[in-house]
Design a protein that fits this description.
This protein has 301 residues and is an alpha/beta fold. It is built from 9 helices and 12 strands. The strands form 3 sheets. Strands 3, 4, 5, 6, 9, 10, 11 and 12 form an 8-stranded mixed sheet that branches. Strands 1-2 form a two-stranded antiparallel sheet. Strands 7-8 form a two-stranded parallel sheet. It is elongated and about 75 Å long.
Length: 301
C-alpha cells in the first residue's frame, strides 16, 4: 500500500467511474483497476460493488476512503512543516474566495502580494462558502478569504478587514439625494437579495430584518453585478459591500449611500486549518492585505 493507491481510491469514490478516476490520476484504467484490486487483497475487504454502469462503495470502503483522506492530508502537512520552517513565503498557495469578495479584493491585493512575495505561486479558486470550507477541510485549499460566519469557529481566523455595507438605489429613488441614511429607515422597504448560498445574503438579511425591511422574493440575484443592474432599472434597493462600489458613490444610474452609526458591516477573514503548518505564511499575508485594503477603505471616508 502506498499514497498513490490511496489517491486512486479517493478519486474513484468521488467520481464513481473507473475511466474518469484514471483520467484524474493520469494513469490508464487497467492500472487504476489493478491497484484497487491489490488494495482490496492487501486489506482483505471488499471496498466496492462493481457493475458495468456504476461503482457503489461498501460501508468498509467508505470508512477506508475517509481514513485515506486524513492520511494524505497529514502527509501533505509533513511537507508543509518542513517548507514553512525553511522558506515560508515560497512554493504554491491555493486560496479560496467567495464571489462577493473575489472580484473586488483581488485587483487590490494580487499586485501587492506578488511584489511582496515574488517566490509565492498563487492559485485562486472562487466558490460559495460551504464548498470552500469543505475543500479547506479536505486539504484541497490552503486558506480562504471570506466573510466570517458563526460556523467557522473550528478554524483559525485572521481578521483581514472590516467592510461597511452601503445602501444601493436608483438615482430616481426618493432617497437618492441623501448623504447618509439610518438603517431604521428601511422599515417596510422591499430589499433585493442574493440567492441562497451566499453568506452576504444571510448577513444583509440579518441587518434588514432587524430594521423591519422586507425581502423582495420576486427576484434573487446570483451575483452582486446582477443586483446592481436590477437597482439601476429602479427595481428596489439593496445592501452592497463597500469595496464593490465606486469611490464617488455614483455610477450607471446607481447611487450608494453610507449608513449612519451603527454601520452594518461584515468581517473578512483569512481562514485556515488549526493545525496548518503554514501559519507563518498566513500571518504575513494578512498583514500585507490589511494594509492594502485599509488604504482603499480610507478613500471612502
Amino acid at each position: 500500500m502506498n499514497f498513490r493507491d490511496l489517491e486512486y481510491l479517493i478519486a474513484l469514490e468521488e467520481l464513481k467511474h473507473f475511466r474518469k478516476a484514471a483520467d484524474r490520476c493520469f494513469v490508464s484504467q487497467p492500472t487504476l483497476s489493478g491497484q484497487i484490486k491489490k488494495l482490496e487483497e492487501e486489506l482483505n475487504v471488499q471496498l466496492m460493488e462493481r457493475s458495468s454502469r456504476k461503482v457503489i462503495f461498501t460501508p468498509a470502503g467508505l470508512d477506508i476512503v475517509a481514513k485515506a483522506k486524513t492520511i494524505l492530508l497529514e502527509a501533505k502537512s509533513l511537507k508543509e512543516i518542513a517548507k514553512s520552517h525553511n522558506e515560508p513565503m515560497r512554493g504554491t498557495l491555493h486560496i479560496g474566495l467567495i464571489p462577493t469578495v473575489a472580484p473586488y479584493l483581488l485587483p487590490l491585493i494580487v499586485p501587492v502580494m506578488k511584489e511582496a512575495f515574488p517566490d509565492l505561486e498563487l492559485y485562486l479558486h472562487e466558490n460559495q462558502t460551504q464548498t470552500l470550507i469543505k475543500q479547506l477541510e479536505e486539504g484541497e485549499l490552503d486558506c480562504l478569504m471570506l466573510a466570517l460566519m458563526p460556523e467557522m469557529e473550528p478554524f483559525k481566523q485572521l481578521v483581514l478587514y472590516d467592510e461597511p455595507l452601503e445602501l444601493a438605489l436608483s438615482d430616481k429613488h426618493a432617497w437618492s439625494d441623501q448623504r447618509h441614511i439610518n438603517l431604521q429607515e428601511l422599515s417596510g422597504e422591499h430589499v433585493l437579495m442574493l440567492a441562497d448560498g451566499h453568506c452576504l445574503r444571510d448577513q444583509a438579511l440579518g441587518f434588514c430584518f432587524a430594521a423591519g425591511a422586507i425581502e423582495d422574493n420576486s427576484f434573487k440575484a446570483t451575483s452582486l453585478e446582477t443586483l446592481r443592474h436590477m437597482i439601476s432599472a429602479d427595481n428596489g434597493v439593496t445592501l452592497l459591500p463597500q469595496l464593490a462600489i465606486p469611490l464617488n458613490r455614483y455610477q450607471a444610474g446607481v447611487k450608494y449611500i453610507p449608513f449612519e452609526p451603527p454601520v452594518p458591516s461584515r468581517k473578512i477573514v483569512l481562514l485556515s486549518r488549526n493545525n496548518s503548518a503554514r501559519q507563518a505564511c498566513f500571518d504575513k499575508l494578512a498583514e500585507v492585505i490589511n494594509k492594502a485594503v485599509q488604504a482603499r477603505l480610507d478613500e471612502y471616508l
